[in-house]
């Protein structure tokens, strides 16, 4: 008997018909002899509808009250799914995040899980029942207030419960058949990946792939929770996320050959893209020790997470340089305001803000030991007539910034250049969101 944690996204429980379909899948897993715990998101666009409603009531609603409001969506879906499951003869009980023992810090709207104490979930399992848990929420133990986990919070809830319960696998059910080599809405010929390592999935998620939340993958890697990404609309086997790059290397190979002996592992896992970033350029910065440090201290204090950074070589005639960096678009106004406050102190000349950029990332553990990857990437973008504005790399990722209106073309060009197009027809996005 296996302990399985299943997570269903909003598109999987968008309406009554969908809820009944999910209940049948839960019943099948239970009747197959498994212990089953389910984490569910709010139905369809419920969370967006609640956000819109709050905006009509108050221009600046208190964060605590927003968290209480937004957790209502998952409470609705968990109760309805428990009803549907019980109707199929499978006893099920629903639990909020606090009832399930998901403990968080006090950061309303973006709380982080600090512990999972799933006593009531264990008791439910021991009684042979299915526990259905509201995702995206927990409780701040110090204040005893409800909190929400931010974007992708239901994924994170599912992985945290799987780790806390010692589950055999955490199944993430979505509206695509697994993790693809690119977003199938942009590249219809994208190919499904059968297996991907935690490191590769982390890079894909951090680079804009929305099929899995970054924090959920981080949690899974930390606690060794295997993730199985599948569609709730089909019986396709999906994508397994587990292991590390080291697991793919033949342990019996000579030391000097281990990195070369990746057993049939593909060179590139996928191409991810992100439209949610903006670029700030600080022009005319005095090229003196400590100026860059001061700029990024100010940006960090504003609460912005910086992604890519480029500093130009200073002009000999002026002794000044330009520094560009990318950050989440929503963090742009606060970062700009903070930088304006220290203009006299830093002595820069001007600030430029650009929200019409897009980021493309090529990810693959195999690129570590294969030359020519960068050349092929840049050649594909060049041949598509697209200009590259910024570049950053890691051991298994190369990212570039282009104009936003060129991003889709760049993704398709790079995807084809690396032989990632599928010959088996177009990928299916069952509910239209890719999540």
Automatic annotation (TrEMBL):
Nucleotide-binding found in the keyword field: yes
InterPro entries per record: AceGlu_kinase-like_sf, ACT-like_dom_sf, ACT_Aspartokinase, ACT_dom, AKii-LysC-BS, Asp/Glu/Uridylate_kinase, Asp_kin_monofn, Asp_kinase
Catalysed reaction equations from the record: L-aspartate + ATP = 4-phospho-L-aspartate + ADP
EC number: 2.7.2.4
Domain ACT: 280-353, 362-435
GO molecular function: aspartate kinase activity
One matching Pfam family: ACT_9
The entry's keywords: Amino-acid biosynthesis, ATP-binding, Diaminopimelate biosynthesis, Kinase, Lysine biosynthesis, Nucleotide-binding, Transferase
Gene3D superfamilies: Acetylglutamate kinase-like, VC0802-like
Pathway as given in its UniProt record: Amino-acid biosynthesis; L-methionine biosynthesis via de novo pathway; L-homoserine from L-aspartate: step 1/3; Amino-acid biosynthesis; L-lysine biosynthesis via DAP pathway; (S)-tetrahydrodipicolinate from L-aspartate: step 1/4; Amino-acid biosynthesis; L-threonine biosynthesis; L-threonine from L-aspartate: step 1/5
Catalytic class of the enzyme: transferase
Origin superkingdom: Bacteria
Family membership: Belongs to the aspartokinase family.
NCBIfam families: asp_kin_monofn, asp_kinases, PRK06635.1-1, PRK06635.1-2, PRK06635.1-4
Purpose of the protein: Catalyzes the phosphorylation of the beta-carboxyl group of aspartic acid with ATP to yield 4-phospho-L-aspartate, which is involved in the branched biosynthetic pathway leading to the biosynthesis of amino acids lysine, threonine, isoleucine and methionine.
Name this polypeptide is given: Aspartokinase
Organism: Myceligenerans pegani
